[in-house]
Write a structure and sequence with these properties.
The protein is an alpha/beta fold. It is 40% helix and 19% strand. It contains eleven helices and 13 strands. Strand 4, helix 4 and strand 5 form a beta-alpha-beta unit. The longest helix is centred in the middle third of the chain and has 18 residues. The protein starts with a helix and ends with a helix. Beta-D-galactofuranose (GZL) binds next to helix 2 and strand 10. The site of beta-D-galactofuranose has 13 residues, from helix 2 and strand 10.
Length: 340
């Protein structure tokens, strides 16, 4: 189908999907529609399915894609924000298939439920690249490759950091009571971080995990869950929070309960993502350590698409480089280097 037909079909579909009040009935917020250009065939058309806009990390991810897949770089980016609902992603993939995009880039909200729709994409001859989170499918050929983080390593790094920190505090033999704010249940980031930390937890006889509960990677839910933890448990020594935005909520809850956290406080806080906002909170003494999760994945994915355009093979799994930050480091200097 010619690109001009695709654009006509796209506009037709968009109007068909509109429910009369200017909103797409599927509930997804569409980026402004791309006006038609003379010869769209010069562009590589990429359909990107973003999880939502739930966190600072997510905004860094969205900016990375919008700054990379530009018309100047030879791309048409069709951007869909699924507002953290898998059904919106499933609808949008079928929409992209109808438009015969050249590539689908999917950041899957959760790992399961993708076999059927990705089979449709493969039958339509459209390569699927996974960004950030991954999927659990029988047939690994349903996607070309996954570019993201080694989440289990992030969780393990957090456990190892806590062992070392408690040792330095002279608390290796003390009873340590821990609660965990989990991310969106069933997402790769949550599965990996929980499993990685648990691998270290099970080797520490004096550590007790009081409870896991999901704050869905949002600040509001993170505060709500932390309030529940504080109401339920007399003594909490450590909070493991699987992203910075839940951490911000947890810090508010701790303070409102008249308790303290961070390097000088009674509750140790481990966070994930290492957004600029969280490193500033660390500077203010609210967080002990933050495990980086790099959202700037679009340049690596763009390289992959160029290789595929040249019929080159690509690695099935490609991890982003990551580190951690704590108050022993020059945070003022580090924050100046951060891009999200
Ligand atoms: C991790 C990413 C997670 C972040 C959260 O790669 O999927 O989703 O840790 C975001 O901030 O909501």
């Amino acid at each position: 189908m010619s690109k001009k037909c695709i654009w006509f079909l796209y506009f037709l579909l968009m109007f068909a999907a509109f429910d009369g009040c200017g909103k797409v009935s599927s509930g997804t917020e569409h980026a402004p529609l791309y006006e038609e250009v003379e010869d769209a065939s010069e562009y590589i058309v990429v359909g990107f399915l973003q999880v939502g806009s739930e966190s600072d990390w997510r905004m860094g991810s969205t900016n990375s894609f919008k700054n990379t897949f530009t018309e100047e770089n030879g791309y048409y980016l069709l951007f869909e924000d699924a507002q953290q609902k898998q059904e919106n992603q499933l609808k949008s993939i079928r929409n992209f298939i109808l438009q015969e995009v050249d590539y689908i880039i999917l950041d899957p909200i959760v790992e399961t439920g993708w076999d059927a729709v990705l089979t449709e994409a493969r039958d339509a001859g459209i390569p699927v690249i996974l960004a950030d989170r991954s999927i659990d499918v029988e047939d690994k050929e349903l996607y070309t490759c996954w570019v993201g983080s080694d989440f289990e390593k992030e969780g393990q790094r957090a456990g190892e950091w806590l062992v070392d920190y408690l040792q330095k505090q002279g608390r290796s033999d003390e009873e340590i009571r821990i609660v965990t704010l989990q991310g969106t249940l069933g997402s790769t980031a949550q599965i990996g971080r929980t499993a990685g930390f648990a691998a270290v937890l099970e080797e520490q006889e004096n550590w007790e995990m009081l409870e896991y509960m999901s704050g869905d990677f949002t600040q509001a839910k993170g505060q709500e869950v932390m309030e529940y933890f504080l109401d339920t448990y007399e003594e909490i020594d450590v909070v493991v929070s699987e992203n910075d935005n839940m951490t911000f909520g947890a810090v508010d809850a701790i303070r409102e309960a008249g308790k303290t956290c961070g390097p000088e406080g009674e509750i140790i806080i481990l966070s994930f993502d290492a957004s600029r906002a969280a490193l500033r909170a660390m500077l203010r003494g609210e967080i002990n350590v933050d495990f980086e999760c790099n959202p700037i994945l679009a340049p690596k994915i763009e390289e992959i698409i160029q290789k595929l355009e040249n019929n080159e093979t690509v690695e099935k799994v490609q991890y982003a480089e990551e580190q951690y930050f704590d108050t022993s480091m020059d945070l003022e200097k580090i924050i100046k280097t951060r891009t999200y």
